[in-house]
Amino acid sequence: MKWFNSENISVGSISKKEIFVGAGGDFNRLLCMNKKNQKAIVYYPIFSNIQGKKCVVIGGGNVALRKIKSLLECRADITVISPKPHPEISKLSEERTIRLMERDYKASDLKDAVIAIVCTDAKKVNRKAADEARKAGALVNVADDPDRSDFIIPSFFRRGNLTLAVSTSGVSPALAKKIRAKLEKSFGVEYASLLSLIGEVRSGIKREGYIVDAETWQGILDIDLLTRLVKAGSREKAKTLLLEKLRTAKRGNRSTPK
Fold first, then answer.
1. Among candidates 108, 102, 152, which has minimal Cα distance to 133?
2. Separation between Cα atoms, residue 41 and residue 43, nearest integer Å
3. Which residue of 6, 58, 81, 145 shows the fewest CB atoms closer than 10 Å?
4. SS3 for 73?
């Protein structure tokens, strides 16, 4: 068995200066064992309310612009720090939609931030900014670097209040986008109208003092039929049908012996 020094390789708890190679492929087996022992990150899917909360974007290029637009949809209080911002970012600042600081960031810029999105072209700057943002108590996302991020941003689209998000846990953003594009074709604007309709019905039956449990909702929501009606312009018919099913379920619950 032959020993050699390496400055760039580490396997588990074995020192990077004590990696060995055997003629029988021991090193490859060791790497495989190490990979099996490493636990993959399991992300907790969450929708966060950041309305009116301070979100800092460090960077001013195309990636930063996309992140800013997403934050604006959520009505966040956005501060952008970049010495050379994209023209559209400058325009948003002129319109007082965001707060722009045309300079390099300072650690003090991160005070009271709930979220920090780091997306400069310099990896060293990204690492430093991410560490300082985390110390300031912000959740951090570093563009194209899930290992240094507290959260990752899925590929998503909206249909009114309906949000469909796809994530590959950072393994393949390209695949996530492909799946999202496929879903977009299946979930048209009629779903926004359907969701609004269901919201109206829920509010109406709550006023009547009837609380519908999750199992009952699952039983009466005929998505295919309701979306066809909404898509055909028969929204009121869909609403009437849904209310009738709910009231039938209500009567059935009352008549069920305890």
1. 108
2. 6
3. 6
4. helix
Six-digit token string for 15: 């020192």
Q: 15 and 63, same structural domain?
A: no
- Residue 95 sits in the same domain as residue 144: yes
Average pLDDT of the residues in 4-29: 39
- Of the pLDDT bands very low, low, confident and very high (cuts 50, 70, 90), residue 254 is low
Exposure of 215 in the CB half-sphere (CA atoms within 13 A): 3
Contact between 76 and 101 under an 8 Å Cβ cutoff? The reply is no
Place of tokens 């006023």: 207
Q: Six-digit token pair at 131?
A: 């560490």
The pair of structure tokens assigned to 191 is: 């779903």
Share of the chain above pLDDT 90, in %: 71
Domain region containing 23: 2-37
Return d(Cα 127, Cα 129) in angstroms, integer. Answer: 6
Give, rounded to a whole angstrom, the gap between the first and last alpha carbons of the chain.
75
d(CA 236, CA 93): 43
- pLDDT tens string 204-221: 888 888 888 899 999 999
What's the domain count of the chain?
3
Check whether residue 135 and residue 218 sit in a common domain.
no
Other Cβ atoms closer than 10 A to 172: 11
Nearest to 71 by CA among 113, 132, 131, 107: 113
